[in-house]
């Protein structure tokens, strides 16, 4: 029997993956979680019918959302990860000895349990002694914080679902307040390729660029993301992602990566013209 999983990216385009079996399915308070096995992507997990990550390409996302800010900020000690219940972001952060504490705020406890069972190579990041996991709403958690973090990573997956509050103007303002005077916010910015997704990309950049003095966008190729093309946002009170990149310091760490390099770091901020135009329109 030929089993196939279809992730509908738009009304007219979708990603279809041949699967060998379904390993898990549960409707939680927040989302429908499914885990599948496939030849093309290994195991992958979906939320409400959309791929969250797969074993074959998760390294791209996790490396780019962590190592870009860590190669810029000179001394990160306290980090907040909003979402991140799979543990992949925490796993990459664990490479940095100077980090003293990592708060991971994930609303759906079942999502964490599922990742611990089916994706141990990611979930191992949550076992680092510096990590504290909070099963709370990310926006409400942020409201209680001021001048607390050097780095905030918004790893929330859906600007329209149960994490919609993490893509609002209030969210960016709360991040600004929760960061220290030289803090950095990095967030997943979505895909700008399909017309259906453009408004969300525009709104995120408009809110971030109006909340932070420095706001830039960078890109990565992630096959299971819509159109295979994904953006990340970099917002900071002080540091510029290119002018303050310290290549020597980061390369001296000798962190083993599969996607990120400091050369790629520089190239990732060189965007296609249609993306540059879109972002500039929102800045103005």
Choose one word for the global shape.
globular
Percent range of helical residues: 25-40%
Main beta sheet, described?
Answer: 7 strands, mixed
Mean pLDDT: 93
Number of strands: 12
The H/E string reads: EEEEEHEHEHHEHEHEHEEHHH
Counting helices, strands and paired strands, the structural category is alpha/beta
Work out the radius of gyration. 18 Å
Distance between the termini: 54 Å
Q: Describe it for me?
A:
By secondary structure, this protein is α/β, with parallel strands linked by helices. 32% of the residues lie in helices and 31% in strands. It has helices at 58-70, 88-93, 109-118, 120-123, 138-143, 169-178, 195-211, 247-252, 262-268, 273-283; strands at residues 3-8, 14-27, 32-38, 42-47, 50-54, 78-83, 101-105, 131-134, 149-155, 179-190, 214-221, 229-236. Strands 8-7-6-9-10-12-11 form a seven-stranded mixed β-sheet, with helices on both faces. Strands 1-2-3-4-5 form a five-stranded antiparallel β-sheet. A hairpin with a 3-residue loop joins strand 3 (32-38) and strand 4. Helix 7 (195-211) packs across helix 10 (273-283). The radius of gyration is 18 Å and the shape is globular. Mean pLDDT is 93; it is low at 159-166.
Give a short summary of the structure:
With 284 residues, this protein is α/β, with parallel strands linked by helices.
Which features characterize this protein?
single chain, 284 residues, alpha/beta, seven-stranded mixed β-sheet, five-stranded antiparallel β-sheet, 10 helices, 12 strands, 32% helix
Secondary-structure topology with pairs:
Layout: E1 3-8, E2 14-27, E3 32-38, E4 42-47, E5 50-54, H1 58-70, E6 78-83, H2 88-93, E7 101-105, H3 109-118, H4 120-123, E8 131-134, H5 138-143, E9 149-155, H6 169-178, E10 179-190, H7 195-211, E11 214-221, E12 229-236, H8 247-252, H9 262-268, H10 273-283
Parallel strand pairs: 6-7, 6-9, 7-8, 9-10
Antiparallel strand pairs: 1-2, 2-3, 3-4, 4-5, 10-12, 11-12
């Amino acid at each position: 029997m030929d089993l196939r999983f279809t992730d509908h990216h738009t009304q007219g385009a979708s990603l279809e993956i041949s699967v060998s079996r379904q390993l898990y399915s549960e409707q939680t308070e927040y989302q429908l979680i499914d885990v599948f096995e496939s030849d093309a992507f290994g195991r992958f997990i979906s939320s409400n019918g959309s791929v969250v990550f797969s074993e074959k390409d998760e390294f791209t996302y996790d490396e780019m959302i962590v190592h870009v800010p860590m190669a810029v900020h000179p001394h990160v000690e306290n980090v907040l990860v909003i979402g991140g219940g799979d543990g992949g972001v925490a796993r990459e952060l664990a490479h940095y000895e100077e980090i003293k504490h990592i708060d991971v705020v994930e609303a759906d406890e079942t999502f964490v349990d599922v990742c611990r069972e089916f994706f141990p190579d990611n979930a191992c990041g949550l076992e680092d002694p510096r990590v504290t996991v909070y099963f709370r709403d990310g926006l409400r958690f942020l409201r209680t914080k001021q001048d607390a973090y050097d780095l905030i990573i918004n790893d929330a997956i859906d600007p329209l679902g149960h994490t919609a509050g993490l893509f609002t103007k209030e969210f960016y303002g709360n991040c600004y307040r929760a960061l220290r005077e030289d803090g950095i916010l990095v967030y997943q910015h979505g895909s700008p390729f399909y017309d259906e997704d453009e408004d969300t990309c525009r709104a995120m950049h408009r809110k971030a660029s109006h909340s932070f003095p420095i706001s830039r966008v960078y890109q990565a190729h992630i096959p299971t993301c819509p159109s295979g093309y994904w953006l990340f946002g970099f917002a900071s009170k002080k540091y510029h992602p290119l002018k303050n990149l310290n290549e020597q310091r980061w390369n001296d760490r000798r962190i083993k990566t599969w996607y990120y390099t400091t050369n790629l770091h520089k190239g990732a901020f060189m965007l296609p013209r249609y993306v540059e135009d879109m972002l500039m329109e929102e800045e103005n």
